[in-house]
Amino acid sequence: HQSDRRLELATFGMGCFWGPEARFGGMPGVVRTRVGFAGGTELNPTYRQMGDHTETVQIEFDPLVISYTDVLREFWQNHYPNRDNYKGRQYISLWHYHTEQQHQTVEAIKKEMEAKLGETIETEITPFSGFTAAEERHQKYYLKRYPKALEQLAELYPDRELLTDSTFAARLNGFVKGYGTKDSVREEIAQWNMEEVEQKFLIKLFSKMKW
Ligand code: MHO
């Protein structure tokens, strides 16, 4: 699919991971999304046994289209970071930075958001320490509610791993949750870094998709 040159990673938790995967998956410039577990010590976490890990979304994005700063603002503008942790660490507000440059940006945007919120932000900000993908049934969770659409995608993505990693599926998962319109999705596909015949194929598939 899209080539991976110059992609950047962001890893964060902001409550149940289904919603933020759709939100960020619907954003132009986000090339790949996955949900999983991060931040804890439990070995081989699963949904049923995540131990001290947090429900986390990991995105790969093209910084020429969407900046790390944009991703951070979207993160803080769309959850309350100081909630009581009623289920231990499962739903805490968590930000993992991958580089020292990212770390500095996180601290700067945190200050900006604290000024807006009028409160100290308690998001746990720590260096990335690993990410374990969640079970397949949690990936692109909202898109999975549309079996007819999945059937039409099955030819393109014969195994579910391919669907999980696809930019198209990330955008569709956002679309079904109300992020983006038919036109915005079509317009964006036309910008993707792939052959024009592939773009046309995806646009047609999307336009004719039965939900
Ligand atoms: N309360 C939600 C949480 C799911 S999210 C993957 C539910 O069980 O529907 O934690």
TrEMBL record:
InterPro entries: Met_Sox_Rdtase_MsrA_dom, Met_Sox_Rdtase_MsrA_sf. It is an enzyme of class 1 (oxidoreductase). It catalyses: [thioredoxin]-disulfide + L-methionine + H2O = L-methionine (S)-S-oxide + [thioredoxin]-dithiol; L-methionyl-[protein] + [thioredoxin]-disulfide + H2O = L-methionyl-(S)-S-oxide-[protein] + [thioredoxin]-dithiol. Its EC number is 1.8.4.11. Belongs to the MsrA Met sulfoxide reductase family. It comes from Planococcus antarcticus DSM 14505. Residues 10-145 form the Peptide methionine sulphoxide reductase MsrA domain. This is peptide-methionine (S)-S-oxide reductase. The keyword DNA-binding does not apply. Keywords: Oxidoreductase. The keyword Phosphoprotein does not apply. It holds the Pfam family PMSR.
